[in-house]
């Protein structure tokens, strides 16, 4: 009986921890309250907001105390519609040098991640948000 109860407690605790991490990602909630910086594209068609992670998980608390790589990025069009969100568990630095934001002529986003430079073609997502596909 005790073994079954112990297994049940371990299983339910594990499920609860997984649900917590999925539902309360430190970058799931964002707005003016955790906005750190905004970078506008060259032609003003798109802008990228840098938000600070919220202390909703143990990893996020550690990263916020550590002080490095505690941000995530969200790309918007000029109408304020969200185009792209950096990976939810990516903790990025505030380094914007070398960053490239999409324009009307070029749909590539280039940003610095923990593994080096990332370049993403956002043509499909831009078309989807603008209702072209």
**Unreliable sequence segments:** none
Average pLDDT across residues? 85
Query: Strand count, sense and closure of the main sheet?
Result: 4 strands, antiparallel
For the terminal residues, how far apart are their CA atoms? 58 Å
Structural class: alpha+beta
Alpha carbon gyration radius: 18 Å
Name the beta content range: 25-35%
Largest beta sheet: strand ordering: 1-2-3-4
- Fraction in helix: 25-40%
Count of the domains = 1
H and E string: HEEHEEEEH
Number of strands: 6
Structure description:
- The protein has helices at 2-23, 58-66, 123-130, and strands at 35-40, 46-52, 71-77, 82-85, 108-113, 116-121.
- It has 133 residues and is α+β, with helices and mostly antiparallel strands.
- The protein has one domain.
- β3 (71-77) and β4 form a beta hairpin.
- The longest helix is centred in the N-terminal third of the chain and has 22 residues, at 2-23.
- The model has no long low-confidence stretch (mean pLDDT 85).
Short synopsis of the structure:
With 133 residues, this protein is an alpha+beta fold. The protein is built from three helices and six strands; from the N terminus they run αββαββββα.
């Amino acid at each position: 009986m005790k073994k079954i109860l112990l297994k049940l407690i371990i299983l339910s605790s594990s499920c609860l921890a997984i649900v917590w991490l999925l539902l309360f990602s430190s970058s799931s909630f964002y707005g003016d309250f955790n906005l750190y910086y905004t970078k506008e594209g060259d032609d003003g068609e798109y802008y990228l907001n840098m938000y600070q992670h919220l202390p909703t998980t143990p990893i996020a608390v550690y990263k916020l105390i550590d002080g490095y790589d505690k941000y995530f990025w969200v790309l918007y069009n000029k109408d304020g519609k969200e185009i792209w969100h950096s990976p939810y568990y990516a903790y990025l630095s505030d380094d914007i040098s070398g960053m490239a934001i999409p324009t009307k002529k070029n749909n590539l986003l280039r940003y610095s991640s923990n593994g080096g430079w990332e370049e993403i073609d956002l043509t499909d997502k831009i078309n989807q948000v603008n209702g072209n596909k």
